[in-house]
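For the sake of clarity, the format in which proteins appear in this thesis is described at this point. The record quoted next illustrates the convention:

___
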Amino acid sequence: MPCVFRQGCLVQSSTTLGDTILEERIQFHDETTSLDLITLLQCTKLFMKGMSSFQLQVNCYHVYCLLSSAQSLENKLECHFTWNLDPGSHTFSRIGRVVEDFGTDEGNIWLGHIYNLQGFIQCKLGSSEEALKSFSRATETFQRLKGSDEGPWLIVNYGNLAWLHHHMGEDEKSQDYLSKVEALMSEYPAPPEEELHPEVCAEKAWTLMRFDKEKAAEFFQRAIKMQPNNIEWQSSSVMLSADTFKGNMSEITPDVLESLRSATERDPENLYVAALYLEARAAKGERIQKEAQALAERVLMRSPSFYSGMRPLLRLYRHYISKDEAVELAEKALKRHPDSRVLKRSAAICYMKKILSADCKHNTPRETITRAISLWEERIVLFEESKLRVQTTLADLYAKVDMEKADQIYEEMLNREDLPLAEKQMLYNYYAKYLFFNRKDSPRSIEYHMKAAEIPVESNHRQTSIKELEKTLKRSRNPQMCEEIWSILNSLENQPETQNQFQAAELFQKAVRMEPNNVEWQSSWAILSADSFKPFMEDMTPEVLEKVKSATERDPDNLYVAALYLNAQGAKEKQIRDEAKYLAGKILEKPMHNYCGINLLIKLYRKYLSVDEAVEIADEAGEHMCSQPISRKGATLETRGEMSVF
């Protein structure tokens, strides 16, 4: 029989005991818990089999108590496990590697926070015992740095321990730490207008710097408002504000620049802030070379870490002093600390910027390039980096001394089948540049710029490829190439923005549901669904292919849909010559316009049938347009006296 707990837990079941009851849903006033319900229910299933109805209800109630306990714990705690820390595009393992580089020097005032964050990440990665060690180190560190066994700075740490022990099934220890948290919150309450104690607010801000910089800035401001004299919090807040401009320090606002200046005076030992301030001044045109040299000597005396100041200082040298001096400074630091991951990564970047910059001398010594490659490969291993951009950079470095190795790296990337469209577009753009500048292969370079431009993802990579194609149109004497380029550019001019395309598809779908017999709406919906696959028709999903096929049957006069369907069939290696010839005859009889199907027809011939026949169709279409009483813009192109169509 169904069992119901009116305390807020409803277990919906059938009369069958055991498996069935646990496959149903458990609800808590429409709220979800942070525990993995599926895992918990599957484990509980093992001891429920064969029980009486009464025993089953008792054990279901036990499950309810466990889940309620987790929900209650979450409501009572302010700690890493309740802050909804989302790594976003990164992973916890990658963030963990960054945290390892923060440094564990005794003088680091954030050392307790570092251990807390490490413990949280270790737990997320499945190492509860290691997490417990880190949280215990955090406790000891806070007590040592603060000179007291108890204080509000332990609220987050004890909260983490309460949560971890609960996670490990040690509820008695969990309750002990929960009691400690409640005692600290009672003794050190938050100000009347705030929910959090300033120490909790500051640790949350510091932690969020790795996950959500905007929220981190907000919590730092709240903490500083409660304790305006805390220098470290002020410095961290300023660093956050300035870091948003590190891509273009010349645009740093006067208020942030003034905040940096004030921070250097209040916190003279914070060399990261000092380096940011010098970088900002250099970007404004000030001469800072002597100050930079003096700061470099101070930074070299420190143990290398993420916030030692070396990273922004090397960036300052590269951009505003000298790339060669940046390399020298990085090597000097590495001699003092040859095993530092942070320094190896920074040195690799300095070498890369020096060798791959536009002003790099062609006679760069081979040993310099070899050193750059060695550091870059070591960086990839140390940080377990698989990003496409890191790999393309390695290939570009190899191109200076070993072209075959560079080719191999690019070929391996081009053969990857797991790349999202945005990364594929970036790869095509980079490979096009590699072919042009290193292989001196202009035709293949243009081919990959066309591939990058065709991918329907708006980005800088797409725009730079489009610009290269436009330049080629102006200088090329190859009518066939110009025809292909013009076809792509013309289709891009008429292509809706991706976001609008999605919105239009949704609206057409709604309209079709209300009027399912409207053929034109169905065809437009099919076109929008298929257009996103135009660069890679072979990837078209079966449901979209079926939608396009149905549209061709319902709307036989829509030649754009017919051309789309034949392109998809060609990509699937179907025999389409007879159908393509028939379609070409029908399209060429009609007036030329954006959705007449001519561009898709030319693409179909070019990719799957015959380039020569594609050119003939393009020429015939161009003549047809010349005879039409409409604007020829977009139909013909005068390129050094030669006409290229589409």
About this structure: The first strand starts at residue 3 and ends at 5. The radius of gyration is 32 Å. Strands lie at 3-5, 9-11, 26-28, 636-639, 642-645.
